[in-house]
Amino acid sequence: MASSRKAYTPLVEPATEEDVENICEDLGLGINEEELEEYREWLNETLSGCDQIQNIEEETIPVLYPRVPGVKPPAKDNIYNAWASSVIIKGEQDGLLSGRIIAIKDNIFVAGTPLKNGSKVWDGYTPEFDATVVTRILQAGGTIVGKSTCESQCFSGSSFTSHGGPVRNPHDTERSAGGSSSGSAVLVATGEVEMALGGDQGGSIRLPSSWTGCVGLKPTWGLVPVTGSLGMMPAVDHIGPMAATVTDVALLLEVIAGYDDGRDHRQRPDILKTHYSELLKGDLSGKKFASVKEGFYNATEEVKTEIQSVVDKMRAAGATVDEISIPLHSDGSAVYGALLASMYDNMIRNHGQASGYNEFYQVSAMKHSFKSRARDMQPMVKATTLFGEYLQRNDGSQVVARAMNMRPTIRKAYDDVLQAYDALIMPTIPFVAHKLPKPGLSVTEFIKKTTANIQNTQMFNLTGHPSLSLNVGMAVPKDGGTKMPVGLMITGQHYKDDKVLDLAFGIEQMLKQ
Questions:
Q1: What is the dihedral angle through the alpha carbons of 495, 497, 499, 501, rounded to the nearest 10 degrees?
Q2: Choosing from 72, 105, 116, 449, which is the catalytic residue?
Q3: Same domain membership, residue 239 and residue 147
Q4: Owning domain of residue 322
Q5: Residue 331 within a domain
Q6: Can 105 be counted among the known catalytic residues?
Q7: Can 204 be counted among the known catalytic residues?
Q8: Do 308 and 397 belong together in one domain?
Q9: Which of 180, 181, 209, 342 is catalytic?
C-alpha cells in the first residue's frame, strides 16, 4: 500500500557521520563508534519527521495597507541622521491618530521596508509583515512617514554606534542624542514628526527623551505587544510612545497597548482597553512623590539644581516630596550586568527572538544568518557575545539563573515604597548630554561610552514598572557650551501607566505657568 506521507524539501539537511562525531566530541557525550551510526539514523529520521510540519498551515500576519519600499533620504534632508528610511503609509481616514504623522524605530517591522537595526549585520533583510503596533497605528488613522535611526543592534545608551553614522542632538550637534531610540527622539524634538515609537531594554526610550527634551514612556512590561520587533531579552523588552507632550504620549499609548491574541507571551489576556488621553487631570495637590536618594549618585550640580527647582514648584502646587533611600537601586545594577549573557543568547544566537515561548515567531528574521557578519558587530555587542559564550561554557548559565531569581527582590524594594507614594522621581540621567566621541576609540572607551548613562533607567527594565522621562528644564553642561535638556523620571506601580501619565501631565502643566 502506498504511503500517505508527502515528500518535502528537507527543512534541514541530513547529518553526516562527521557532523555527529563533531557534536559528540564537543559535548562529551561518550558515544562509541558502534553506537554512532544508530544515533545518526535516529537523528536523521527525526529530522525527516520535522519535514512533515510543512503539511500544516503556518500562521501569517496580513499586510493591511499599501506602501512602496522605504529608502534613506539624502543627507540634505537628514541633517541629524535621524532617518533610517523614508516611506509614506497612510492608514484609515478616521481614528484617534487621524492626521498624525509618526516615525517607527528601525528595530520594529514595517513590511516592505528594509530593516537595518542600526547595524551592517542586518544588511539585506526586509520584513514581510508589520509589527502589531504598526498595524494598530494605521488602523487608528495614523500616517507612518519613515523608520528612525537606532543604535547598532539597539545596544547603546549613546548615539554614536549606528552603522549609518552618529545621530546628532538638535540642541548641539556635537553632542549625543542618547540611545538607542536616538532617531525617534530627535525627530520628535525637531518637530519632523508628532509622535514616534521607541524600544526600551535598558532605558532606550527614556535616555534619548531626556537628552533631546521630549516625553518618552516605557510602559508596564507586557502592556504593549512586541510582536514584530527585534528584542534583546524577553524579561526586559518594551515598545513605547515618544512625543512632544504627555497628552500625545498618552494618545499613542492608548492605540498601541492591549492584548495581542496570544502572539506575545509577555502579555496578560485581561489587559483592558484604557483611554489614557482622557484620564489626564493634572492635579498635583495631595500627591506624594518619593525622591530616590540613590538616583542622584553622580548627578552634576547643574542637574541637581534643575530638579530641585521642579521639586520646589511641586511642593508649592500642593504635592509632598520626600527623600527616601532604596539601596537596591544602586546595588541591583549588577543583576542587569549578569543578564548580558541571556541577552547574547536571545539577541545573537536566536536572532532577536527567545526560543520556545508561546508566541508568534519571525521566521524570516531567523533565516538571516549572523555567522558571516559577526565581525561587523560593534564592540559592546562583541563583548557581550564573549561574556555570554564564556558563561555558557564554564558556568552553565547559573549566573543568569541566579540574577533572574533576584528580580522579585528588587521589584519588591520599589513596590514597598510605592505602597506609600504615588510615584518615584529622580533624574532620568544624572548629567546632560555629553559630546559625541571622536573616531578611533579604544574598545574600553567605546564600551564605557555606550553604557555611561543607564544607571537610573536600567533598573525598571528589570522590574517592569512603568517609567516616563519628562523634560523639566535646561542646564549648561559641566564642560560648558549650550544649555541642554534635563529629564525627570517618574515611575509608578505596575499597570498604573495612567497614573504615571497623569502625574507627568500635572508637572508639565505646572511648568508652563
A1: 180
A2: 105
A3: yes
A4: 75-512
A5: yes
A6: yes
A7: yes
A8: yes
A9: 180
